[in-house]
Model the fold of this input.
Amino acid sequence: MNHITNNKLLLPIYFLIFFLAFTCKTKLYAQKSIQSIESNYKKAKDNTESKYDLAIQLTQEYFKLDNQDEIYKIIDQNIQIATKSNNYKYLTYFYSYKAFIAMSYDSSNNNINTYLSNAKKFSARTNDNETIGFMHF
Done:
């Protein structure tokens, strides 16, 4: 009887150890990934597709780590750059992504509709069919 009771106590402990190991491994992998992407992001020239794509990848990694401040910082920097160059394609993506992030963290955020309306406005100005389809979806 004592043997059965000990096994019942060990199961939650094993589960906890597995959970902590998995969580730590995931966070360490995300941190390593962020360092690699951030290095490439800093090297890339402003207003290039590769810089914008790296910005999106970087914000996705920060999203995994729940680092809201860095996400908004990167998105806002790239919105400023894309605005100066009238890059409507990436303005559409960044504003829609900003709306998604705002909804993920706080669905009562009053700026969500503003972000979405900006994304729709810029998608109407681009000739890129993929971007236009993205916003209609």
In short: The mean pLDDT is 84.
